Records
---
Amino acid sequence: MLGLWLGVLLHAAPGRDHYLSSADHAFQLALGQQVLFGKVPGVDVFNAYGPLVMYVSALGLGLSGSLVGETIACAIGHALALLLVFGLVARAAGPVAGLVASGVGYLALARFYKWYVWLLPLAVVQALVRWLEAPAGGRRGAGLLLGLALGLTALFRPDLGVTCSLASAAVLVVALWRSSTGQRGREAAAVVLGIAVPVGVWLSFLVATGGLDAVVYFVRSTVAGGLMVSQGM
């Protein structure tokens, strides 16, 4: 299924004219190019999104030396999102329904460069399903995966990270409503630990490259960017 959608997306991927005419995608690519110049997102360069957006674009540009890397990265991101759509729906309603759902998802895909807007919330849903299906008392591993998905989501898009975290918290509260205080604490701690891993690595990188001031700059930039995006919407 992944190979199928990847082939379809690569075949339908926009050409050079798209990159010349799409101001938003060009802006994202420009941020990636700044990373290749040694700039740090949110510190040296203002970024309304999260830092990992810049690093993925930088990786594609750096490895391919052209727009091919960005095209492949976007196609892979969307293909993974459609694979998750298929898997989640097939789990509940069978493979035929999953295939139809993924087909509808393809027709409704977001802009080509916004693959993470689809993939990351779907990854959180997948992690929530795994957590809910895990036996009571044995959910710590699933909780760590859920937290990791939430942390990575926040580093791609802070607004998505906050939204997905609130939704996940609501699911966990309902699921653990009748559990003991100790169990609720252990389950919550596993999720928080998972979130702390990617976020902690990023903050440690900021401290190592620019000290505590870099963390302050990043937080201020992230808040300002989030407010700008929210007000624009």
---
Amino acid sequence: MSIPSIAKTGCFSALIAYLFFWFADYWRPGFVSAVFSVHWFLFVMIFFVVLWCVYPVESKKSVSIFLTGLLSLFCVIILWREGDLFGDWLPILIVLGFLTPWIGKSLLSSSSQ
């Protein structure tokens, strides 16, 4: 197996696990969060997305745009739900959270060229 196929499989597996366990914890509060944080799956997915974007894959541009948008959406959701302690700075942090994956993607693509 090649690294892009492993990264693709790991990315989608972590995404499915993240959504499943997040929904399970939402449905029954404390079901998952009493044992571990659901966001560990998100961190694993971010790792595989970076690995997937670094190595060449077919139709890399559309895949990387989709995954970057998905990662931006997750950053906004996490900041929105957990951002009460930021107070008045929350709107600015949400915009920064949305833009961070796009900036990282452009930095990674410019360094590889």
